[in-house]
């Protein structure tokens, strides 16, 4: 068999620098050398720097994989591949990686798993040959690769249209460009994702390739929603590493008007609940539109061919419109603002219900007892109602309902009654119908069913042979009979005739001990049956044995514990007991007939205790109580909290198994003296204890638990928790401002949330960053000086023993002017309205109080030029004309108020 090997004189020469090729420069491989070289699955790059690789992204082993194939033949089973890897800047120090080779395929393979030998930023060369006994193949060609493990700092983001942190820029449908600039020069792409607070769900990540390595990229984004938006960006380098995440926040101006109506409330989701029944088809309701301050008018329309129109706005872009819907049912109002230049902003949709369904009274929102009749009265809310259609709905029925038509009376009303015969009935729907067949909105009436299952009381019957007396009652009327059955035994089934009050009294004598139960139901004269009622009890006369120290489940400890004996006989004077069939013990009963036995188990194992109670010579049945004793497998799985403040008594909680109230717990602070804790509770899986950490040093503390009982090893947790100094308060949610941001309006602050929880707060309000003197409360009445400025509030949170913390709210919108003062009493004249005489304007009364007045006099509605004083001398030419005065108020920070007097005729 031929071999393409180059023989050498001695095996030892394989490891010498000359023969191994140390110092050799890269060259083409000789014939017979390994071929099909691949670096991390990529073809061999024969020039530096080769491919850029990030091991963390390559495979599960997070390692660079080198591969080749040897084309020759071998006969020796112990074939090795000899990979040589070196830093191109230091080719004297080469790594040698020996691995086996696949004899059948000739595949050569190695994973470079030692991170200490594969350094970030280094360019490596590698080659490979095959060793077969004392023979060696030629070296392969040399391949190169460069390691890049770090993605670098976050890229920078900039936008002219939507600057970072900006408020009310652009708008829905207004595109913006965002320039993404890498912090390093090896970036080839950017991954980015836009998000908006008005859009639920995660947006998809997109990729933008850089036009050249390290170059910035500009992406375009057109908002489809308003308010807060976010942009997250990663820069991706040549090795595929992601940079740190860049977060970019901006706000999109909401140019859609807001809509509010108390007359036709907005519907949310798929709900059609809670319409205002004072309004109906053709009844005009008030809608308040609040547009942006740059709109000239607001255009509105109702879908499906409903009414439409436009409304002029006030200086703030607001309007109040009265709209009379032309049809019933759910419909949508669309409103958009239009600027003076004709720009139409996006529409705001407002979904509401026009409810023309009937008014229904009677057994509404109440449970009707099965077997009775539910009664309702329907009254029309539209004209011309001739009938009503109703149908029942059921808890589990999803079939087609059976609809019933009831004619209306002369007054338009109708009475509806349905017998309650099915517990599944839940209520009904009612529609009114006019002569032309038009149906109203369906009114849902919830009217549940009380199943009236009989209730049962018992006296006696706790021991075999004693009579149990039962009294059964049901809320259903006209009861014809009760049916009762005991313990599922058909032989005990009987029918009972009720007394005059509808109750039934019956007896049962248990003949054996143990669990007893009964089922009972009632049937009325119409054959309608109630739900089935039940009752259960236990029959026994052996004493009851209980023990928390030696429970019937789990195991008791090898330590003293107690058992409590409670009699089931009418009187108990003593008890006899034996454990594991040993000596019989006698225990006298206490005054209440009970007895307590204290016992220490001699060893681990399973135990059986038999107990009888005695009343003189009469004995009870034998009660057998089985339990197990064993050293408890006590474990501590966790200690909380992980950090405990020094300086006082603190509570710690251990989670684990078999934790006992009598366990002894010690806490040892770092470098300190062990402190014995006080166990306050233990439930098996949780142990709570108080430990006094006054003066305890900061650092890691250990806990040691000595379990209660014999043969219990100590359980320790070396680094259980950290004793920490009190932390300063930090805001987990910044303060927020709510209220009316206008002069005279009241704004309030919610202090946010803090960790640790704050116990007190201090406040300071500011306008455009300047503190408002004396504004230190939770609420602020906006002063006139704040007009046009943005309000903020700084909250200082305090907690005893902790450094205080501060946090500032976001700025509000600019403070608007207060609403114009209104005349609570209109202006009027004093003086005689006669030519040559003077009239004096009385300004009336205003709320709020104003700073100054000015006057406009009109004659037959036309302004009298120059007449701006409070008084006006009447001219002869004005005879028989009517004169009025308009008083205009001035108040700092408020819009001007206006009010006009009644007119008088000049004589």
UniProtKB/TrEMBL annotation:
Residues of the signal sequence? 1-20
Which InterPro entries does the UniProt entry name for this protein?
A: Ig-like_fold
Q: Does the keyword Signal apply?
A: yes
Q: Any transmembrane segments, and where?
A: none
Q: Which UniProt keywords apply?
A: Signal
Q: Name one GO biological process term.
A: carbohydrate metabolic process
Could you name the domain of life of the organism this protein comes from? Bacteria
What is the protein's given name? IPT/TIG domain-containing protein
Q: Which organism is it from?
A: Paractinoplanes rishiriensis
């Amino acid at each position: 068999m031929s071999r393409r090997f180059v023989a050498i004189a001695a095996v030892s020469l394989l490891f010498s620098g000359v023969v191994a090729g140390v110092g050799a420069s890269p060259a083409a491989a000789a014939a017979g050398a390994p071929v099909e070289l691949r670096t991390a699955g990529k073809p061999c790059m024969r020039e530096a720097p080769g491919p850029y690789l990030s091991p963390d992204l390559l495979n599960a082993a997070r390692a660079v994989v080198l591969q080749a194939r040897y084309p020759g033949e071998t006969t020796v089973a112990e074939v090795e591949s000899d990979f040589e890897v070196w830093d191109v800047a230091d080719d004297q120090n080469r790594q040698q990686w020996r691995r086996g080779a696949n004899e059948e395929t000739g595949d050569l393979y190695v994973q470079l798993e030692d991170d200490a030998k594969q350094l970030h930023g280094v360019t490596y060369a590698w080659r490979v040959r095959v060793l077969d006994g004392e023979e060696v193949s030629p070296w392969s060609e040399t391949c190169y690769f460069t390691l890049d493990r770090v993605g670098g700092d976050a890229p920078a983001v900039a936008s002219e249209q939507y600057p970072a942190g900006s408020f009310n820029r652009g708008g829905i449908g207004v595109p913006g460009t965002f320039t993404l600039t890498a912090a390093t020069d090896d970036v080839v792409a950017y991954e980015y994702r836009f998000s908006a607070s008005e859009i639920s769900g995660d947006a998809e990540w997109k990729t933008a390739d850089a036009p050249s390595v390290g170059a910035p990229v500009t992406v375009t984004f057109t908002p489809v929603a308003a308010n807060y938006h976010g942009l997250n960006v990663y820069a991706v380098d040549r090795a595929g590493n992601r940079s740190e995440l860049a977060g970019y926040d901006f706000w999109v101006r909401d140019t859609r008007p807001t809509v509010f109506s108390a007359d036709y409330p907005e519907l949310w989701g798929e709900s059609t609940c809670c319409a205002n029944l004072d309004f109906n088809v053709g009844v005009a309701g008030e809608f308040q539109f609040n547009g942006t301050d740059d709109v000239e008018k607001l255009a509105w329309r109702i879908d499906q061919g409903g009414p439409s129109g436009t409304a002029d706005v006030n200086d703030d872009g607001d309007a109040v419109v009265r709209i009379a819907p032309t049809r019933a049912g759910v419909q949508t109002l669309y409103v958009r603002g239009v600027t003076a230049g004709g720009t139409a902003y996006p529409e705001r949709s407002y979904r509401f219900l026009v409810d023309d369904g009937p008014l229904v009274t009677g057994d509404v929102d109440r449970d009707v007892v099965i077997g009775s009749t539910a009664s309702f009265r329907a009254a029309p809310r539209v004209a011309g109602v001739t009938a009503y259609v109703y149908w029942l709905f059921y808890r589990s029925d999803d079939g087609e309902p059976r609809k019933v038509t009831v004619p209306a009376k002369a007054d338009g009303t109708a009475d509806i009654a349905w017998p309650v015969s099915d517990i599944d009935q839940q209520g009904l729907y009612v529609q009114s119908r006019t002569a032309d067949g038009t149906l109203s909105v369906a009114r849902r009436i919830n009217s549940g069913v009380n199943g009236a299952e009989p209730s049962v009381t018992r006296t006696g019957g706790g021991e075999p042979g004693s009579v149990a007396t039962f009294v059964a009652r049901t809320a259903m009327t006209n009861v014809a009979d009760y049916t009762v059955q005991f313990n599922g035994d058909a032989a005990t089934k009987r029918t009972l005739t009720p007394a005059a009050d509808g109750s039934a009294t019956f007896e049962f004598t248990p003949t054996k001990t143990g669990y007893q139960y009964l089922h009972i139901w009632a049937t009325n004269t119409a054959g309608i049956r109630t739900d089935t009622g039940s009752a259960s009890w236990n029959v026994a006369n052996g004493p009851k044995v209980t023990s928390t120290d030696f429970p019937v489940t789990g195991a008791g400890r090898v330590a003293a514990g107690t058992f409590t004996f409670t009699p089931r006989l009418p009187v108990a004077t003593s008890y006899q007991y034996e454990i594991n069939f040993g000596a019989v013990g006698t225990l006298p009963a206490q005054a209440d007939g009970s007895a307590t036995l204290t016992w220490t188990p001699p060893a681990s194992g399973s135990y059986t205790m038999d107990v009888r109670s005695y009343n003189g010579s009469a004995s009870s049945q034998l009660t057998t109580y089985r339990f197990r004793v064993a050293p408890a497998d006590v474990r501590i799985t966790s200690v909380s909290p992980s950090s405990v403040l020094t300086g006082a008594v603190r509570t710690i909680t251990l989670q684990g198994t078999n934790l006992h109230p009598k366990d002894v717990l010690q806490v040892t602070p770092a470098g300190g003296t062990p402190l014995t804790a006080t166990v306050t509770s233990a439930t098996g899986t949780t142990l709570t204890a108080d430990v006094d950490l006054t003066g305890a040093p900061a650092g890691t503390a250990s806990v040691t638990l000595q379990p209660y009982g014999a043969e219990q090893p100590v359980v320790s947790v070396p680094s259980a928790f950290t004793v920490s100094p009190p932390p300063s308060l930090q805001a987990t949610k910044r303060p927020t401002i709510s209220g009316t941001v206008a002069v005279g309006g009241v704004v309030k602050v919610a202090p946010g949330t803090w960790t640790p929880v704050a116990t007190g707060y201090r406040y300071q309000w500011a306008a455009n960053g300047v503190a408002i003197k004396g504004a230190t409360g939770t609420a602020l009445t906006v002063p006139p000086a704040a007009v046009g400025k943005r309000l903020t509030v700084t909250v200082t949170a305090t907690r005893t023993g902790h450094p205080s913390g501060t946090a500032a709210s976001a700025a509000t919108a600019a403070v608007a002017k207060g609403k114009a003062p209104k005349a609570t009493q209109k202006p009027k004249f004093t003086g005689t309205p006669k030519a040559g005489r003077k009239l004096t304007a009385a300004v009336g009364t205003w709320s709020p109080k104003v700073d100054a007045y000015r006057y406009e006099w009109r004659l037959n509605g036309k302004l009298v030029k120059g007449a701006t004083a409070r008084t006006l001398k009447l001219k002869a030419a004005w005879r028989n004309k009517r004169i009025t005065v308009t008083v205009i108020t001035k108040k700092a920070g408020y819009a001007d108020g206006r009010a006009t007097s009644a007119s008088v005729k000049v004589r």
